[in-house]
Amino acid sequence: MSYPAGSPGWLITRHAEAKELLTHKGFSARQEGLTPPVPTELQYDGVPADPGAFAKTDDPIHGRYRKLLTGFFTVRRTRQLAPMIERIVHEQLDDLEKAGPGADLVEVFTESAPSRVMCAMIGVPESERKTLQRHVETLGRLTCTEPEALAAVSGMSGFLSRFIPARMDDPRDDLLGDLIRGGQLTEQELMGMAATLITGAFDTTGNMLAMGVFTLLEHPDQLARLREDPELMAGAVEELLRFLTISHLGASRWALEDVEFAGQAIKKGEVVTVALSAVNRDPERYSNPDQLDIARTDHGHLALGHGVHQCLGQHLARTILRVGYEALFDRFPTLRLAVPADEIPMRDDCVHYGPKSLPITWDD
Q1: Considering only CA atoms, which of 84, 90, 79, 33 is closest in space to residue 56?
Q2: Is the pTM of this model over 0.90?
Q3: What are phi and psi of 259, to 5 degrees?
Q4: Cβ neighbours, 10 Å, residue 68
Q5: Whether the bond into 60 is cis, omega within 30 of 0
Q6: Which terminus of the chain has a lower count of CB atoms within 10 Å, N or C?
Q7: pLDDT by residue (tens digit) across 149-187?
Q8: Side-chain-facing half-sphere of 218: CA atoms under 13 Å
Q9: CA–CA dist 282, 345 (Å, integer)
């Protein structure tokens, strides 16, 4: 196959091969000097990742940064954060109730709750959150123009260049404060790490929260089962992650050398993309893969990645999703779409898929 820029590449649609690729030492997540496999309006120079921006790096750099962060995102630490997550979720639902039937769930709830959680974790002032949210949204749009991207990057960098030095002078009792007191990161590395955490948290979990609500409202039989048996919620979150796979552009890796993989000769520098949406519905891996089944017990999806680059905040994301779905459907038992489903505008021009807006209503 050929990617939009004309460079040759490969596509993986089977679950077993996807897992193998994502742990293969012959492929890199680093994309400097290489052409991205996604359609974009921007000129892409393949520059190296900023210090601290670990998502697009390989070991040992990736391992060093990730090791410093892993302890903040364990199951145990996430459980400790649960009361804060629940408080934020319920505060946003209070706002939703005040907004009344016809409100946009994305604007009032699904966008705000996850971003507020991350801001609380790293100490970002609430007054800055919505501006940062706009910057993240701009950079996540594939149709973003170069002037728009430069403005967003400048806005994000401007905030971090003020925020990080101030916090280094006055470290607090939060994730960023602990990193500063650890003394292992430079100012530039702290800026890159904070930008990575903000970008990831603001864009992914919010879209998944909105898309999950939309999907459950469109599958009333599954929502009814969930209401009848709340113990199904943890499994329902996994099934929604598998079924929806909002990272609809997949995960790409670049060959470090000429390599034979899955019976194909792949040349150095060529791109291999894991089509996550297809992989998570691989009929060789799942029975009835195109059916949403919240009672499904055979998970093992790759919606959150696999291998050393598996989503750092996966436990946090799962907790936000579980708490968010539970609280929303509990508070609004008659929740439903306020417009026909085919009128919901979707983010099909963005890195992560989900509703641009989700008008909902309920019985007072």
Answers
A1: 33
A2: yes
A3: -145, 150
A4: 18
A5: yes
A6: C
A7: 889 999 999 999 999 999 999 999 999 999 999 999 999
A8: 16
A9: 27
